[in-house]
Amino acid sequence: MSVGREREVSRIVCDECTRAGALRAVAGRGLPSIEPGMPTPAGTGLTRRGFMARSLAWR
Amino acid sequence: MALTVYGAGRLDIFDEGIAAAATMPKNPILVTVFLQGGADALSLLSPQADPLYRKLRPSLAISGGTAFAEDDRLFWHPALDPIAQLHGEGKVTVLPAVGYDHPDQSHFTSRHFWEVGATDSRLLTGWLGRYLDVVGSPDNPLQGLSLTGSLEPALATAKVPVAAIDGPDQYDFWSPGVWGQVEDRMLEAIGMLGNAGAHDAASRTAAKVAGQSATLRRQLQPFGGKKLTPAVPYPAGNDSFPRSLQGLAAMIAAGLPLRCVALEATGEYDTHASQASELTPALTTTAASLYAFQRDLEARGVADRVLTLVWTEFGRRAEENGSGGTDHGAAGTGFLIGTKVAGTQVGEYPGLASGLDRDGNLKATSDFRGVYAALLEQWLRFDAERILPHISKFKRPTLVK
């Protein structure tokens, strides 16, 4: 099986789906390496002003 | 407390911005709900009268459910009975096979295309974010609101601020061992930080941020689920989706300056295995929550302002696999819900005899880009050509009556 076909099959069968779900790329938090050539999620790198309250909410 | 504002160049104008926006005309609101993982179109609307269905799905074929009024080959998944009921009232537009040409079966890539409104891997703004960049304001972060705790990429802007909260009932301050009157005084003190003098720019900014946090907390506090008395019952339990919709309905009724809101539905729809047992509970809660949300909006007298788009990144293969599930496919099923939807399906179910591509996946009979263009133009009254690339070639279905 060619590399290209292997990649296609892996996308369809989704061996990485479980891990992909757990490590879902979140805009602004960087992109885990899950799939070669995957697009950068919209919003990645967007300036994020976390309100100070985020640091004030502690347990 | 989890509130994050994205893209805000200035944080000291939110008070005035939100107050001003709250008095603006009652603009239409678009809510998007994502079924993550690629929901199986042939289960959401099962082609029980299609002769090839049970041959391709010997163990997964569904029996029963409400007949789909617009195509006698199709039946609603039994868990979608609430949506079927709304459809019977003319409040649901169904897209039986929505997708795009040259479908990509990667979760990440296909989802990205839907989020940016184009089959372009390079775009870094969401389709709704680009809309907000034109019509939005620099001082109203609630104009684009993610109710998932992080920025939903479809709302990613380049200029104006948008916000993300964990859920209307998850927005609060807390501190261990602090409650009652002591808690109230602590929160007042945090707010007063915004008025505190500071000797350097960084301290002044921090003080302003604290003040803004307290202001937004006051504005959002009434919508915490624990304090709400919903107009209709929502599904009980710990799931965040119905709670978020419940809070959202209250926020809309209260006139908060929302334009676009993004949520993720209950459950995961990437059903490579055990599809029957995985899909039913997810759809049950999702459908019941969407039904309750629609009824809630109607009871509050704001239903005419809200349209909900339910989408997924792709459907699943027509033939079941050997694990009691299905693998990534092409065209999926989408819904538009609201009192103002046209209520007529967009694109027909293509059938299994001639409606599968060379990979055995359902061919699309409508394109998500045309749907987006129609939503922008018919619902949001905005020229889609301004923000969707190459959109002139896509037919606009009639979505709004």
Describe this structure in words.
The complex is a heterodimer of chains A (59) and B (401). Chain A is mainly alpha-helical and 59 residues long. Chain A is 37% helix and 5% strand. Chain A is built from 3 helices and 1 strand, in the order ααβα. Chain A has helices at residues 3-13, 17-22, 52-56, and one strand at residues 48-50. Chain A is elongated, with a radius of gyration of 17 Å. Mean pLDDT of chain A is 52; it is low at 1-11, 18-33 and 50-59. Helix content of chain B is 32%, strand content 12%. Chain B is globular and about 75 Å long. Chain B starts with a strand and ends in a 22-residue tail after the last helix. Classes of the chains: A mainly alpha (59), B alpha/beta (401). At the A-B interface, helix 1, helix 2, strand 1 and helix 3 of A face strand 1, helix 5 and helix 8 of B.
What secondary-structure arrangement, pairings included, does this model have?
The complex is a heterodimer of chains A (59) and B (401).
Chain A: H1 3-13, H2 17-22, E1 48-50, H3 52-56
Chain B: E1 3-6, H1 14-21, E2 29-34, H2 41-44, E3 45-46, H3 53-56, E4 75-76, H4 81-88, E5 92-99, H5 107-116, H6 127-135, E6 144-146, E7 162-165, H7 180-192, H8 201-220, H9 240-253, E8 260-264, H10 275-299, E9 306-311, E10 332-337, E11 366-367, H11 368-379
Parallel strand pairs in B: 2-8, 2-9, 5-11, 6-7, 6-8
Antiparallel strand pairs in B: 1-7, 3-4, 5-10, 9-10
What is the end-to-end distance of chain B? Answer: 41 Å
Mean pLDDT of chain B: 87
Which descriptor suits the 3D outline of chain B? globular
Task: Give the helices and strands of chain A as they follow along the chain.
Answer: HHEH
How much helix, percentage-wise, in residues of chain A?
25-40%
Please give the count of helices of chain B: 11
**E-strand count of chain A:** 1
Radius of gyration of chain A: 17 Å
How many β strands of chain B by DSSP?
A: 11
- As a percent range, the share of strand residues of chain B is 5-15%
List the secondary-structure elements of chain B in sequence, H or E: EHEHEHEHEHHEEHHHEHEEEH
Note the gap between the termini of chain A.
Answer: 52 Å
Helix content of chain B: 25-40%
Main sheet of chain A?
none
